[in-house]
Design a protein that fits this description.
- About 25% of the residues lie in helices and about 40% in strands.
- The chain has two helices and five strands; from the N terminus they run E-E-E-E-H-E-H.
- The two termini are about 20 Å apart.
- The longest helix has 10 residues.
- It has about 80 residues and is of the alpha+beta class.
- A five-stranded mixed beta sheet has the order 4-3-2-1-5.
Length: about 80
């Protein structure tokens, strides 16, 4: 199954996440298919950005977002 999930980057205690589309069997920070955005929880308020065209394409193709990515998509207005 293909999932939309967070890939952790950044320094220790200062995470920045990339939002990627990956096979559910690959490790969290491992191989991915496409990068579709980023999320920075350290800023106040939290910052995020999606490539809207790619995100809509992957949702239409059946990619399942994880709980945190689904929450960000809802805030961004890209999901129900």
């Amino acid at each position: 199954m293909v999932k939309m999930r967070l890939r952790r980057m950044g320094k220790k205690k200062a995470p920045i996440y990339r939002i990627v589309v990956a096979d559910s069997r690959s490790p969290r920070d491992g191989r991915f298919i496409e990068e579709i955005g980023w999320y920075d929880p350290t800023q106040e308020p939290s910052a995020y950005k999606f490539d809207e065209e790619a995100t809509k394409k992957w949702i239409a193709n059946g990619a399942q977002p994880t709980a945190e990515v689904a929450k960000l998509l809802k805030i961004a207005g890209l999901a129900k």
